[in-house]
Amino acid sequence: MSDIGLIVVDPGHFHAALAQKEMYPNLSSKVHVYAPVGPDLADYLSRIARFNARKEQPTHWQLEVHAGPDFLERMCRERPGAVAIFSGRNRGKAQRILAAVEAGINVLADKPLIVDRQELPVLEAALNAADERGLIVYDMSSGGRQATIATLTRLLREDPEVFGDPVSGTRTDPGVTTASVHHIMKQVAGVPNLRPSWFFDITQQESLADVGTHLIDRIHSTLFSDQAIDYWTDIRLHAARRWPTMISAPQFRQVTGEASWPDYLAPCIREDALEYFCNTRLQYEIRGVHIAVETRWDWEAAEGGDAHTACYRGSRARLELRQGAAEGYRSELYIVPVADIATAIERRIAALQTVYPGVGLVKLGREWRLSIPDALRTGHEEHFARMTRHFLDHVEQRRSPPTWEKPNTLAKYYVCTEGVALSQG
User: Fold this and answer.
1) Which of 94, 196, 299, 380 is 20 to 30 A distant from 188 in Cα terms?
2) How many Å apart are CA 20 and CA 12, to the nearest integer?
3) Which one-letter DSSP state was computed for residue 399?
4) How far apart are CA 213 and CA 201, in angstroms?
């Protein structure tokens, strides 16, 4: 297959445009866009126009826009391409993905695929339908596993002489802790990133169901790489709580361009400020390992940007992802020994250099920091191109996803959406 036809459906999140930040040799430059008329579509078209007009490595996308309220039905009927990107409103996204699959279209979907636990059976039906038709439904949040630092963390965790066995921990002292801090006001592709007003509707955009997909996908793939997880038997949720970030009326106008609060946010307005419940802490257990996950949205970064931290406790060492001032706000992996692992870690890093040239160790007192060359790192925006290439290669070569991908996708969204329900009491 060559010149795969691309469809973009209701591009309400900037991730749809980021997937088109560069051209792909096996993807047609002609793109069919199906969406309702409104600011989400206008924002997407503006981003693609900027990519086409930039001086360095401009893209040359040719967009054919099919705008109207019946955009989904029309797309499924006309089927002008083999793959579709879904990056719009999250409630009901699983139903739209299922419709595309039943129409014979592969799907690259921005996270979250679902935001409510009632939608889990629909997601399962979509994944089953894709299997039956030899199609692919790929969740963008799964692409984070391909990052070099994620792969190296997994490889070190799998080395019994370095990491040992996972520490189960307890609810008060978990075996794994991870946290993500995102920012509402930030720049993407060099320009201020406006948010659609529905972004602040937690029935559409819930923090744990959204950002949590990255964190939980990373935890499960690090602890149980290439193993199928059964959410019925392997997972137990213990506790969850949520708290708000307050968004003032001027801040809301700045980040959305809206002159006033939309009616659907009225129940959350407190003295002309939005009580935005975008922060969640979840405690759960998977195969006996206690996990603590925190997702948080602050208004704007004082320094640095979005940050992801994590700690995996092993019987011989801890693996810690840090991204603070000491790291220049760049994600770095530290190995903190609790046993004598000096020889083992040096042996392991030497072996990794055949696949990851330039990777090394920096000794810092009792611990080591993994030295990762810039050439092996990808930023947030570059990550989307890499992930899209991976997806398109699977479609072109008709490679089915691994057998564990479907149960693990369901397990991830089970944790996220059940955690949301638990946090809401």
Assistant:
1) 94
2) 14
3) P
4) 18
Evaluate whether 401 touches 119 at the Cβ level (below 8 Å). no
Structure tokens belonging to residue 179: 């946290």
Model pLDDT, residue 101 = 98
The sheet with strand 137-139 has its strands ordered as 62-67, 27-35, 4-9, 83-86, 106-109, 137-139
Identify the CA nearest to 84 among candidates 160, 140, 149: 140
Enumerate residue ranges in the chain where pLDDT < 50: 1
Look at residues 137, 146, 180 and name the one whose alpha carbon lies nearest to residue 296.
Answer: 180
Mean pLDDT over each residue of the chain, to the nearest integer: 93
H or E, element range at 387: helix 380-397
Six-digit token string for 357:
């040239």
Which residue, among 302, 255, 246, has the nearest Cα to 274 in the 3D structure?
Answer: 246
Tokens 């691994």, located at residue: 402
Residue 187 is predicted with a pLDDT of 73
- What are the helix (H) ranges across 147-277? 148-157, 207-223, 231-234, 249-256
**Tens digits of residue pLDDT in 321-344:** 999 888 988 999 999 999 999 999
Q: Which domains does the chain have, with CATH numbers?
A: 4-139 (3.40.50.720), 145-380 (3.30.360)
- pLDDT tens column, 130-157: 999 999 999 987 777 878 999 999 999 9
- Rounded to 5 degrees, what angle do the CA atoms 400, 404, 405 make? 60
- How many residues are listed for the chain in this entry? 425
**Residue 78 in 3-state DSSP?**
helix
